[in-house]
Amino acid sequence: MKTQISPLRFSQLLSATPRGARLARLLTVQQLDAWGRPPACTVSESAALVVAELAANAVTHGRTQGRGFRLTLTAGAPDTGTLRIEVTDARGDRAPRSRTTVPDPTADSGRGLLLVEALTTRWGWEPWPPSGKTVWACLPLS
Prior knowledge:
This protein is α+β, with helices and mostly antiparallel strands.
């Protein structure tokens, strides 16, 4: 019989508000600490920034009246060494786009996905039926 090592998984539904986005970041740091990654380590700091950006985008661009967003963290089995961050919102019609150019230095926004791209090994999105989307990003755990 083959032994299977289950990944560590955390999932939480949050309100699509600035407070919900802040809570997503704090819960990420707390959960990683429970999984043995202290708040001051590189993985925790990078994950907090990625979650902050993805959650802020879910609140700003993916919000639908009366619907929240879901944060899911999955730390793979030891041989994968990857943390997968997922933020699911209700607006599947508004897909994230990676920027190929740097935004105007005086602009107040437009840098979030550049930051996600710089901190992660890969990221993307997929439809979440019936009408939402999941934006995901992967970070190395080492």
